[in-house]
């Protein structure tokens, strides 16, 4: 969610700069948003299909793009739009670009009126609910884009240039691909190598070592951890892969599938109790429960705390307050004990910054073509250089000098190998993940207002209620 507290924010998720200033929309509001018509009467005529125009874009039609104005900014999209105008000179001056943090508020009337944009970066605190959009048949199937030749190699389809799992993330129930996640986010426990070196320490690979380091820091007036207590749905960025590491990947799959008693798995209990111990022993920065993501990141940058759960967008989002010698890095969850089902290095990484083409868009081929351009090496390298994040293009960093955090994220991916998990709860059930699990339970537990047992019981009820709610479309891992 790349640049947002949403995942995938994503994306989510991300995903992503001044987030959470408004409440996450209710399901009823989201349903209203997704109820616009899909009348084809307003669509522009298709162009002529050719090797240079594989999606048959109308070469003189306008293009309407709305970008979430978060941690990634919007320049990368404007630069890609300039490439689009070069490819189709007759569109010059006809590309409408707008940016907002209030995606839901701005776009709801347009969906309802049947006049949505051609391409949307659906991210941020007001991200539209994907499950509802898909259930209401409001999105364009992106299969033509994925089957089109890539910008860089006409012998390769776009789908064959993407990182593992990106295509599947855009599917619901194994059906057509509705979402293209542009950024590729590495989640985990972020820290400063410099600040650890000051304590003569390295990143702790076991939980016992984590607690020892936090105690050492505490004696020097430094907190072990901080987190955005106002947006506690950041906690899963390190907590969920910790659960998977302890109990195995099937633990998270059961949670995603809303299986009965999934949250009562011993791995969940162990992970919650480990995090609660951080609170009980006074290893969390005082006042964290009242901090926004920006405030917690700033405190972390100032050396007030060693660790923070976050995604790889943080390097760009926090750059204004990050010291030059900070050496930002990401760590995989520490090992709880020798009984863990997955090795140290297990990490959560997945597509972030989700792009969609509305079904009733005027120029859907243009929206897909802009995405095809963005997934080329030129746009990818531009994005990497601008915002310190990987894209979903597999590679795209050759010849680039990566900043510390991004280099660390890439190294973490290499170390993880096949031990990469990708929880889908945040994609499939936004309200459950953010409002109920995040704010309603994890935030309460980390602030000491709820025990792990109470939090687990509450979350299981939230999950059960969602599973029983016929108004919420259900999704499962294939």
TrEMBL record:
Top-rank taxon: Bacteria
One GO CC term on file: cell envelope
This protein's UniProt keywords: Signal, Transport
Gene3D superfamilies linked to this entry: Periplasmic binding protein-like II
Subcellular localization(s) per the UniProt record: Cell envelope
InterPro entries assigned to the protein according to its UniProt record, in alphabetical order: Bact_solute-bd_prot1, Chitin_NgcE, SBP, TAT_signal
A Pfam cross-reference name: SBP_bac_1
Family matches, as PROSITE patterns: TAT
Family: Belongs to the bacterial solute-binding protein 1 family.
Name of the protein in its database record: ABC transporter substrate-binding protein
Organism the protein comes from: Streptomyces sparsogenes DSM 40356
């Amino acid at each position: 969610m790349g640049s947002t507290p949403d995942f995938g924010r994503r994306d989510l998720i991300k995903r992503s700069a001044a987030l959470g200033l408004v409440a996450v929309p209710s399901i009823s509001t989201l349903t209203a948003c997704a109820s616009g018509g899909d009348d084809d009467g307003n669509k522009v005529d298709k162009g002529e299909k050719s090797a240079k125009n594989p999606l048959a874009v109308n070469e003189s039609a306008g293009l309407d793009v709305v970008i979430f104005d978060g941690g990634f900014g919007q320049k990368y999209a404007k630069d890609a739009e300039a490439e689009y105008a070069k490819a189709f000179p007759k569109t010059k001056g006809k590309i409408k670009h707008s940016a907002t943090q209030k995606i839901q508020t701005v776009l709801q009337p347009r969906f309802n009126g049947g006049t949505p944009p051609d391409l949307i970066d659906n991210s941020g605190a007001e991200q539209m609910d994907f499950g509802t959009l898909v259930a209401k048949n409001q999105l364009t199937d992106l299969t033509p884009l994925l089957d089109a030749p890539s910008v860089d190699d006409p012998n390769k389809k776009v789908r064959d240039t993407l990182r593992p799992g990106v295509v599947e993330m855009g599917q619901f129930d194994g059906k057509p691909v509705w979402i293209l996640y542009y950024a590729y986010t590495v989640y985990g426990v972020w820290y400063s190598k410099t600040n650890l070196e000051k304590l003569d320490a390295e990143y702790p690979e076991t939980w016992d070592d984590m607690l020892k380091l936090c105690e050492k820091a505490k004696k020097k007036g430094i907190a072990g951890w901080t987190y955005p207590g106002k947006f506690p749905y950041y906690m899963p960025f390190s907590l969920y892969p910790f659960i998977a590491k302890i109990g195995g990947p099937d633990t998270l799959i059961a949670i995603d599938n809303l299986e009965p008693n999934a949250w009562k798995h011993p791995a969940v209990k162990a992970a919650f109790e480990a995090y609660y111990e951080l609170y009980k022993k006074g290893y969390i920065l005082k006042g964290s429960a009242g901090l926004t993501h920006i405030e917690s990141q700033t405190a972390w940058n100032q050396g007030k705390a060693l660790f923070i759960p976050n995604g790889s967008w943080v390097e760009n989002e926090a750059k204004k307050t990050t010291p030059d010698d900070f050496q930002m890095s990401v760590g995989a969850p520490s090992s709880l004990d020798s009984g863990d089902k997955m090795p140290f290095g297990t990490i959560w990484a997945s597509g972030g910054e989700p792009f969609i083409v509305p079904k009733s868009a005027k120029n859907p081929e243009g929206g897909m073509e802009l995405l095809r351009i963005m997934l080329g090496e030129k746009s990818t390298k531009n994005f990497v250089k601008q915002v310190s994040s990987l894209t979903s293009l597999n590679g795209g960093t050759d010849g680039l000098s990566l900043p510390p955090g991004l280099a660390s994220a890439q190294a973490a991916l290499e170390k993880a190998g096949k031990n990469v998990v990708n929880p889908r709860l945040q994609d499939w059930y936004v309200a459950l993940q953010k409002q109920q699990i995040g704010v309603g339970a994890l935030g309460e537990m980390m602030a000491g207002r709820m025990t792990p047992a109470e939090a687990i019981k509450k979350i299981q009820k939230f999950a059960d209620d969602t599973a029983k709610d016929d108004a919420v479309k259900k999704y499962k891992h294939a």
